[in-house]
Every structure is written in structure tokens, then in C-alpha cells.
Amino acid sequence: MDPTQRQQARLLPWSGSGGKPCYLTGDGNGPVPRLADEVEATQLGMGAELLGHARAMLNDRRVSNGELRYLGERLTEALCDVLRIAQRRGAARGPAQEAQGDRPGRRGGG
Fold first, then answer.
1. In whole angstroms, what is the distance from residue 64 CA to residue 83 CA?
2. What own/partner pairs with CB < 8 Å and gap ≥ 24 does 25-34 have?
3. Residue 57 burial (CB < 10 Å; 0-12/13-18/19+)?
4. How far apart are CA 14 and CA 84, in angstroms?
5. Does residue 91 register a pLDDT over 80?
6. Is 105 within the bounds of a domain?
7. For residue 18, what are the domain limits?
8. Is residue 5 part of a domain?
9. Is the CB of residue 50 less than 8 Å from the CB of residue 73?
10. Structure confidence by residue, pLDDT tens digits, 38-63
11. DSSP letter at 26?
12. 9: nearest Cα among 25, 32, 27
């Protein structure tokens, strides 16, 4: 990598002590970026699976309040994971690409 190029810090899909975000700098090659990609894929897959489970539970009138509370906690965790991934991917796109994606009529684009 050319030392004159500015390194972009990558937000990792896990937190450090006290829930602080973890970042990685470098060229994007190596074991840590590959692990981060695998963790993100796992988190997204688990979120999709949890969403399907949630739909089934919400349609079942026999589900207890405790089960729904547990579901809500897991959904909150999954949403946090997905938002962190979206934040990282949005930062990786850069401001010019983000502006192109924020056209009126698109969800979240105003």
C-alpha cells in the first residue's frame, strides 16, 4: 500500500470494553477483515432467522409475555448489529455515493 494514501478506519461488527466501537485500519486484507466479514454475514443471517421466528411467535396467541419480552431483547440486539453493519457500509461508500442514494421517494432519503 502506498504510504501517501489515507487509510480508512473500518468499524468492526463487535464492541470493545464498555460497549465502545472497535475500528481497524489497514488495506482491508488479512485475517481480521476476513473475520469481520464472516461475523457480519453471520449477524445478518441470524437477524433474518430471528425475524421469521418473531413473525411466527406474534401470530401465536399462546406465547407468554416473558417469551415476547425475550423476543424483544433478541430483536433489539439483532437490530443493533444490522445498524452497525449499515453504518460501516455507508461510511465505506463515501459522501458522494451516499448523496446519490438519498433521492426523494427512497426510504430513509426524505
1. 28
2. 27/1
3. middle
4. 9
5. no
6. no
7. 10-94
8. no
9. no
10. 999 999 999 999 999 999 999 999 99
11. S
12. 25
In a domain, 102, yes or no: no
Q: H/E element holding 12?
A: strand 10-15
Flag whether 4 is in a domain: no
Rg of the chain taking only CA atoms, in angstroms: 18
Total number of domains constituting the chain: 1
Cβ neighbours of residue 60 under 8 Å, at least 6 residues apart?
none
Residue pair 5/76 in contact (Cβ under 8 Å)? The answer is no
Residue 29 near residue 1 (C-beta atoms within 8 A)? no
Identity of residue 87 = Q
Question: Which residues are CB-neighbours of 101 under 8 A, at least 6 positions away?
Answer: 93, 109
